[in-house]
Amino acid sequence: MSASVRRSRDVPMLVDRAREGDPRAVARLITLVESGDEVLPEVAAALAPHTGRAQVVGLTGSPGVGKSTTTNELVRVLRAQGHRVGVLAVDPSSPYTGGAILGDRVRMQDHATDPGVYIRSMSSRGHLGGLAAATPQAVRVLEGAGCDVVLIETVGVGQAEVEVASLADTTLVLLAPGMGDAIQAVKAGILEIADVFVVNKADRDGADATYRDIQGMIGLGERGPGDWRPQVVRAVAARGEGIDDIATAIDKHRGWLVEHGELRLRREARAAAEVEAIAMGELRARLGSLREGTELATLAGKVAAGELDPYAAARRLLDELAP
Questions:
Q1: At residue 160, does pLDDT exceed 60?
Q2: How remote is the C-alpha of 9 from its chain's centroid?
């Protein structure tokens, strides 16, 4: 093993350097996370004392609504407020090669030399829901590296892209006039996860109609006393207009989360989903090892021959997984 590889797997050193703001150390830690390296449990243990404090904001919406431009401008506003900002931009990957262009980092070159900003593009690698499977652990890395705000920009694939809501404290759904969002406003899916709606490209024809449709949809929703009413903000991100209003809406939602104890509940739910995902991954790995043995083949033969029902076979297989 080369010296550079050994250095990249020296977890205590990497965590210490990441805590000091070394972008290369942060990059190496996220690479270990993305590759599912065997030292990942050690990485998580080293980062744990430094996590759980960052404000996590998700940005999602259909392709072309201006997510990257809005993220870029939001970073500018947050830096002016003195925040250290991490950005995870998830790009779609090829179903054939698994590769991705990772173009969001290109769109955010304005902050490339700012030591208070860390931008990482991630390939979705076929993971559904708009995120990459490694995104939750990557958020922990950025928290451990001292980012007090983490922005997560999703792939941008449509209504099924709701996983970000389970990872973010505040979820922004971006819309744009002329993209069919007026119709989408009455449909289930992505528009139901928003804490803040952003009508971007608000200088275009139809922006007022889109704004009214979203307000109308919110008005039809059932909310109890004190429940959060999603904010609707107009913006023209390409000109930097309305970004301060977006930041204000995010701060207002965070205040509500803290006041009503919802922030703790959301983070506990996020931790539960993270633990469950890790446990399921371990279970799948164990099932894979069984597939390589003879037990599964024997059980499958009995099920195919009608000698055993599939539920009984599954129970026997699970018994094999017991320690």
A1: no
A2: 25
